[in-house]
Amino acid sequence: MAIANRDMNKVVENDTPIHDWYRFVLSFPPHLVRDYCDRLGVGPADRVLDPFCGTGTVLVECKKLGISSIGIEAHPMSAFASAVKVDWLPGPDDLLSHATRVAAAAERSVAAVAGGCEPFLLRRRICC
Tell me: the pLDDT tens digits for 29-43? Predict the structure, then answer.
């Protein structure tokens, strides 16, 4: 996929579920990592070191390409985001099941506090 020069530093739509769930100003788009790996001939037999891995863009893209990688990050929040992004052990069904249980518990909790008000109405009052 060819990317126009004006869009080189933007996250493309296919990458947003992994790389766009938080705001991190110093990051760069994942397609650059893929492009550099391709241009430099980096493949599954290689290992990539990212000594300032930030939120893990290089690590995630290497993992998607089957390339071993090592990341180092001193900032706790960035290191946490990076660790979460490369932990692919929970399957989609497990995540959906857990999210459904969390949502149900939250709705019960809100209903108890709201005294029977609809959760949507309570959220609307809080937001206004």
Answer: 889 999 999 999 999
